[in-house]
Write a structure and sequence with these properties.
The chain has five helices and five strands; from the N terminus they run αααβααββββ. The protein is an alpha+beta fold.
Protein backbone atom coordinates (compact mmCIF):
# COMPACT_ATOMS: atom_id res chain seq x y z
CA UNK A 1 0.00 0.00 0.00
CA UNK A 2 2.87 2.36 0.79
CA UNK A 3 4.38 1.66 -2.63
CA UNK A 4 1.12 2.62 -4.38
CA UNK A 5 0.85 5.81 -2.34
CA UNK A 6 4.47 6.68 -3.09
CA UNK A 7 3.95 5.95 -6.80
CA UNK A 8 0.83 8.14 -6.92
CA UNK A 9 2.66 11.03 -5.24
CA UNK A 10 5.60 10.63 -7.64
CA UNK A 11 3.32 10.55 -10.69
CA UNK A 12 1.44 13.59 -9.42
CA UNK A 13 4.68 15.54 -8.98
CA UNK A 14 5.90 14.56 -12.44
CA UNK A 15 2.56 15.49 -14.02
CA UNK A 16 2.52 18.90 -12.33
CA UNK A 17 6.15 19.58 -13.21
CA UNK A 18 5.54 18.83 -16.88
CA UNK A 19 2.26 20.72 -16.88
CA UNK A 20 3.76 23.90 -15.38
CA UNK A 21 6.45 24.09 -18.09
CA UNK A 22 3.90 24.04 -20.90
CA UNK A 23 2.60 27.46 -21.87
CA UNK A 24 0.44 27.71 -24.96
CA UNK A 25 1.29 26.39 -28.36
CA UNK A 26 3.93 28.97 -29.28
CA UNK A 27 7.28 29.84 -27.77
CA UNK A 28 8.02 33.44 -26.77
CA UNK A 29 10.19 33.78 -29.89
CA UNK A 30 7.38 32.60 -32.15
CA UNK A 31 4.97 35.09 -30.57
CA UNK A 32 7.47 37.95 -30.91
CA UNK A 33 7.96 37.09 -34.60
CA UNK A 34 4.19 36.88 -35.15
CA UNK A 35 3.73 40.36 -33.67
CA UNK A 36 6.53 42.04 -35.60
CA UNK A 37 5.56 40.35 -38.85
CA UNK A 38 1.94 41.36 -38.13
CA UNK A 39 2.99 44.97 -37.64
CA UNK A 40 4.55 45.00 -41.10
CA UNK A 41 1.84 43.03 -42.93
CA UNK A 42 -1.07 44.75 -41.17
CA UNK A 43 -2.31 41.48 -39.68
CA UNK A 44 -4.71 42.96 -37.11
CA UNK A 45 -5.84 39.53 -35.89
CA UNK A 46 -2.25 38.49 -35.07
CA UNK A 47 -1.66 41.75 -33.25
CA UNK A 48 -4.86 41.52 -31.23
CA UNK A 49 -4.22 37.85 -30.37
CA UNK A 50 -0.57 38.25 -29.38
CA UNK A 51 -0.32 41.55 -27.50
CA UNK A 52 -1.52 42.10 -23.96
CA UNK A 53 -2.09 45.62 -22.66
CA UNK A 54 -3.22 45.77 -19.04
CA UNK A 55 -5.58 48.75 -19.27
CA UNK A 56 -8.74 47.83 -21.22
CA UNK A 57 -9.20 51.32 -22.65
CA UNK A 58 -5.59 51.52 -23.85
CA UNK A 59 -5.88 47.99 -25.30
CA UNK A 60 -9.07 48.88 -27.21
CA UNK A 61 -7.56 52.17 -28.39
CA UNK A 62 -4.38 50.48 -29.60
CA UNK A 63 -6.32 47.76 -31.44
CA UNK A 64 -8.64 50.32 -33.08
CA UNK A 65 -5.72 52.57 -34.03
CA UNK A 66 -3.78 49.70 -35.58
CA UNK A 67 -6.84 48.46 -37.48
CA UNK A 68 -7.42 51.94 -38.94
CA UNK A 69 -3.73 52.50 -39.69
CA UNK A 70 -3.30 49.09 -41.37
CA UNK A 71 -6.24 49.81 -43.67
CA UNK A 72 -4.83 53.18 -44.78
CA UNK A 73 -3.21 53.66 -48.18
CA UNK A 74 -0.21 55.36 -46.54
CA UNK A 75 0.46 52.27 -44.38
CA UNK A 76 0.16 49.98 -47.41
CA UNK A 77 2.50 52.16 -49.49
CA UNK A 78 5.06 52.47 -46.69
CA UNK A 79 5.22 48.74 -45.99
CA UNK A 80 4.72 47.44 -49.56
CA UNK A 81 8.42 46.98 -50.34
CA UNK A 82 9.61 46.46 -46.78
CA UNK A 83 10.14 42.75 -46.11
CA UNK A 84 12.24 42.51 -42.96
CA UNK A 85 13.82 39.27 -41.89
CA UNK A 86 13.90 38.97 -38.11
CA UNK A 87 16.70 36.95 -36.56
CA UNK A 88 16.31 35.57 -33.06
CA UNK A 89 19.40 36.44 -31.04
CA UNK A 90 18.21 35.11 -27.69
CA UNK A 91 15.20 33.95 -25.71
CA UNK A 92 15.17 34.07 -21.92
CA UNK A 93 12.29 32.63 -19.89
CA UNK A 94 11.85 33.39 -16.20
CA UNK A 95 8.61 31.83 -14.96
CA UNK A 96 5.72 33.76 -16.52
CA UNK A 97 8.00 36.41 -18.05
CA UNK A 98 10.23 36.18 -21.08
CA UNK A 99 12.50 38.35 -23.15
CA UNK A 100 13.32 37.83 -26.81
CA UNK A 101 16.01 39.76 -28.65
CA UNK A 102 15.58 40.15 -32.40
CA UNK A 103 17.74 41.78 -35.05
CA UNK A 104 16.71 43.04 -38.46
CA UNK A 105 17.20 45.95 -40.85
CA UNK A 106 14.83 48.87 -40.59
CA UNK A 107 13.12 50.45 -43.58
CA UNK A 108 16.24 52.62 -44.14
CA UNK A 109 18.50 49.55 -44.25
CA UNK A 110 20.12 50.13 -40.86
CA UNK A 111 20.74 47.23 -38.49
CA UNK A 112 18.44 47.34 -35.48
CA UNK A 113 18.14 45.30 -32.31
CA UNK A 114 14.70 44.84 -30.76
CA UNK A 115 14.13 43.63 -27.20
CA UNK A 116 10.65 42.16 -26.77
CA UNK A 117 9.21 41.54 -23.31
CA UNK A 118 6.52 38.87 -22.99
CA UNK A 119 4.24 37.54 -20.29
CA UNK A 120 1.81 34.69 -19.85
CA UNK A 121 -1.85 35.65 -20.22
CA UNK A 122 -4.61 33.05 -20.13
CA UNK A 123 -2.12 30.23 -20.56
CA UNK A 124 -0.22 31.58 -23.56
CA UNK A 125 2.69 33.86 -24.28
CA UNK A 126 1.86 37.42 -25.35
CA UNK A 127 3.96 40.48 -26.00
CA UNK A 128 3.80 42.76 -22.97
CA UNK A 129 2.16 45.80 -24.54
CA UNK A 130 2.72 47.87 -21.41
CA UNK A 131 6.46 47.75 -22.20
CA UNK A 132 6.24 47.61 -26.00
CA UNK A 133 8.28 49.48 -28.54
CA UNK A 134 5.34 51.71 -29.48
CA UNK A 135 5.27 53.53 -26.12
Amino acid sequence: MKKIGFLMVLLSLLFNACKSDFVGEQTPSEVALAVFNGLITGDTAAIKRNIYITDEIQRATFNDYFRIAAASSQYMETTANYKPVYNIVSETIDGNDAEVVLTTKNISGQNVRITVKLLVDEGRWKVDGDHGVWH
